Every structure is written in C-alpha cells, then in structure tokens.
Amino acid sequence: MKLPALHIGNLTATVPIVQGGMGIGVSLSGLASAVANEGGVGVISAANVGFNEPDFKTNTVNANLRALKSELLKAREKAKTGIIGVNIMVALTSFRDLVRTAIANRADVIFSGAGLPTDLPRHLLELCEEKKEEFKTKLIPIVSSARAASILAKKWMRHFNYVPDGFVVEGPMAGGHLGFRENEITDQSFSLDKIVPPIVEVAKKLEDECDHNVPVIAGGGVFTG
C-alpha cells in the first residue's frame, strides 16, 4: 500500500508514521533515529530521560536536561536527514526547561500532551528573543477532542500569534494520559473514527483562515495499515 507523505510545515516524512514517545528509556536516540531513517518521525521521550545518569537520584532535573540534549545530538548524528521529535508531557515538573532544551538543541518537532500545553509557543518565542536567532522547532499539541483543539488553537493565536503545526489525536487506547474513564475505553463514541473527523474540521478551518498547513495525526487503537 502506498501511503501519502506527512507534511509538517517544511518537514516531510515520506512514511506517515509518528513513533510514540515511551518514557524512561524506551524511546531514546536509537529507536528515534531508526524510525527517522526509514522515513517516519522518530520521537525521544523526555519523561525521566536521564534515568541512566550517575546523579539522576540526587540531581534529577539537571540529569534529565543533560540526557535530553545528549540523546538529541546522538539521534541527529545517526539520522542526518530524518525527522527527530521530542515528546514532553505538560505534567512534568520541569516542562519549561525540557521544552527550551529541546528547542535549543534543534529538535524538529515537540509533541506535548498530558494536559493542555497552552504556553508552549511562549518558550519558543522567548528563546528566539534571548538568543537573537531563529529556532524552527514545530509545535504539535496532543488532544482528545475537537473542543480541546479549538480552545488551544485560539489561545495560541490570541496570545502568541502562533498556529499549531498540527494535532495529534489520541483516543482512550493511546496509553491513558488524557483522562478517559475505564468505561470509555470500549465505548465506540470515543473511538478514533468518531473523535478524529471533528478535529480534522478544526484543522481545515485553521488552514483556510491562516494559510498554514495543519496535519492531523491519529494515535491509539490503530493496529493495521
């Protein structure tokens, strides 16, 4: 089956698959670069990425920031032309510093969920201002409803004049970070084929109003091509 390419701004994944962010050492530079080299979007998880650092238990925040920088550099060495992203949960206590580290070290994309990343563009704009240079990291929130996507887009545009570079849509089978109840896991009204189309409509409206490509990426409960 020939799948269409995935376009995220000026980035192109010839294979339209985004590898999920799996924390505490599952998706690091090795997995992310392997996916990127095959044409997909490789993703490093920032969740306790520094678990292997010698001072992780005593200096957790700095260990995680140091390791995230290291993993990004290693991934870029292994996949010079591929797309390398970082998954950073809003719920992480060092969210701001992890975002800034990812941007400063040229992550292609930041995917952010486990809460609404309402201030995500702020960190990009502040870093550009501080460093007096342009950073081109794309920002993609993870949402579970059209309402969340619409609210987030309006906040980003109102406060930062920034249009989301896409949306990841996760249903209740995507790992449990978006607050679905147990009884909703098998409720067909929350299945991907029900929650994705309204978010596609939000994205289409943004594209029409802002002349900006806004792809929608579905995740959680996709088992075959």
Provide an overview of this structure.
With 225 residues, the protein is an alpha/beta fold. It is built from 6 helices and 8 strands. It has helices at residues 29-37, 60-78, 95-104, 120-131, 146-160, 192-210, and strands spanning 6-8, 11-13, 41-45, 83-87, 109-112, 138-143, 167-170, 216-219. The strands form 2 sheets. It has a 6-stranded parallel β-sheet with strand order 3-4-5-6-7-8. The chain is globular, with a radius of gyration of 17 Å.
Gyration radius from CA atoms, angstroms = 17 Å
Distance between the termini: 8 Å
Largest sheet: 6 strands, parallel
Q: In terms of structural class, how would the helical and strand content be classed?
A: alpha/beta
- Give the amount of beta strand, in percent: 15-25%
Whole-number mean pLDDT:
94
The helicity comes to 25-40%
- The geometry reads as globular
**How are the strands ordered across the major sheet?**
3-4-5-6-7-8
Poorly predicted regions: none
Order of helices and strands: EEHEHEHEHEHEHE
Question: Layout of SSEs?
Answer:
Blueprint (H helix, E strand, L loop, with lengths): L5 E3 L2 E3 L15 H9 L3 E5 L14 H19 L4 E5 L7 H10 L4 E4 L7 H12 L6 E6 L2 H15 L6 E4 L21 H19 L5 E4 L6
Parallel strand pairs: 3-4, 4-5, 5-6, 6-7, 7-8
Antiparallel strand pairs: 1-2
Helix pairs in contact: 1-2, 2-3, 3-4, 5-6
